[in-house]
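Protocol step 4 of 6: structure prediction from sequence.
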Amino acid sequence: MHMLAVDWDFFFPTPEAGGPAGDHPELYGWPVAEDEHHTEVVWEARAKAFLAAGVELPQVQGWRGFWERFTFTERALLIYADSNAWAGQLWPSTVGGSGAWESVHLYDAHHDAGYKTNHASFDHWRTSGDGIRCENWMLAHAWAGARLHVHFPPWRESLARPREVPLVEVDMTIDDGSAPGVAFDAVFVCRSGAWVPPWADEEFTEFIRSAPVPNGLHPGNQWIHPRPDPLRIGELKEALYARAAQLSE
């Protein structure tokens, strides 16, 4: 049995993930964490920074028609959530199978197979008790014996920047639009709200609905979707501040 995982940031080009630097790479120097501040609150300031620099808000791209290359089994279903960490809890038993995945194919701007900045080795992670998180969930499937494949987005310029050093063996390529030679029994899609802005949420919904398999929200996921428009929030704040200033005169 085989699992397909797709991170929404696969469709959101950024310099830090190996995309073209552009004229304002500094605008993408974002700290990220999977908490309410970084998935919701901070996007207002980021949107203002783009507009202040005279740069249009960056958008997701290339997702339409994405599903057409893949083959799915009759029992296949799609589960979605905000964090890719949930993909570490998706097993063949979820769709009526047993054992481990034969292969996991991930389409993502990051490899999610552990980073040496967090753990020196796979054994270090395995014995650390740190558990499954968004940056290491593929290790759980590698531990069970799955073959790992990471397909980086076509907007990535090379595999040399950034240099990828996963903690386990991973087949890593830049996506050329070809189809993996397997039929997928399960699909996991994450919104990656700390990496992809709220103004892409409506398209994320379209992306999920366009998949040719039944879909459902992971039962453990908690989120606001779509998130509030950060530009609208900024406008409301300015109006409130102006009103408060008038009242204080």
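Step 5 (inspection) to follow. The helical segments are 36-41, 43-52, 122-128, 137-143, 201-209, 230-248.
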